[in-house]
């Protein structure tokens, strides 16, 4: 009897260390972030609304190795009555990623991987003060990078993941269009190239996975 219990305990501990990272497992992730900030004073009211949504799918093509696709959408609206201006920023994009998991303790894993991403954004600003004018920015950004972090496979169906380290190379092209009160039109185009890295605990964020 004791021998059977020992074998069962060993089998359970092995399964705890291995579930959800095995070949053929699917992982669906999602995220919603919504904030509103309102400042009211004598004769004015400023309001800032930020909303972002993410949806992702991953597939373990072999044990502890996952490929994934993430889609993102963001909408930010700012209204400033004190200087009579409105701003709206829309962005959407996606990224392809690869992650490899390394067991640490039971269901806690470290991971490292890489990704390629694309983001399109458009920012419109309208000023209706003494000299009305409108300005719009359209940007396309491309990025490749490496990153790593920690994943906790809470149960067979759920996991919680955070990103701790990252390094990215980005290229972006932005077009600016401005129309003034006298219909004077200005158009600017500029590009940028950037290499950046973020250290331990910087830009801490979490992702929730549903596994099946």
UniProtKB/TrEMBL annotation:
Record keyword Signal present = yes
Q: What is this protein called?
A: Outer membrane protein beta-barrel domain-containing protein
| Source organism | Pedobacter zeae
Q: Keywords for this entry?
A: Signal
Q: Does the keyword Signal apply?
A: yes
- Annotated signal sequence is 1-20
Upper classification of the organism: Bacteria, Pseudomonadati, Bacteroidota, Sphingobacteriia, Sphingobacteriales
InterPro entries, alphabetized: OMP/PagP_B-barrel
SUPFAM superfamilies annotated for this entry?
OMPA-like (SSF56925)
């Amino acid at each position: 009897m004791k021998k059977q219990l020992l074998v069962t305990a060993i089998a359970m501990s092995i399964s705890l260390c291995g579930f959800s990272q095995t070949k053929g497992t699917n992982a669906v992730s999602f995220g919603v972030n919504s904030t509103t900030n309102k400042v009211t004073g004598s004769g004015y009211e400023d309001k800032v609304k930020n909303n972002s949504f993410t949806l992702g799918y991953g597939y373990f093509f072999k044990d502890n190795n996952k490929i994934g696709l993430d889609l993102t959408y963001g909408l930010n609206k700012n209204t400033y009555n004190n200087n009579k201006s409105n701003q709206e920023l829309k962005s959407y994009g996606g990224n392809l990623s690869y992650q490899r998991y390394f067991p640490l303790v039971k269901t806690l894993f470290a991971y490292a991987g890489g990704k390629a991403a694309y983001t399109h954004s458009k920012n419109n600003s309208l000023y209706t003060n003494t000299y009305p004018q409108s300005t719009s920015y359209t940007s396309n950004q491309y990025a490749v990078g490496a990153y790593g972090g920690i994943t906790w496979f809470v149960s067979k169906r759920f996991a919680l993941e955070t990103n701790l380290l990252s390094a990215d190379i980005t290229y972006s092209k932005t077009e600016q269009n401005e129309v003034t009160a006298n219909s004077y039109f200005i158009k600017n185009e500029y590009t940028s190239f950037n290499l950046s890295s973020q250290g331990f605990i910087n830009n801490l964020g979490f992702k929730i996975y549903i596994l099946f």
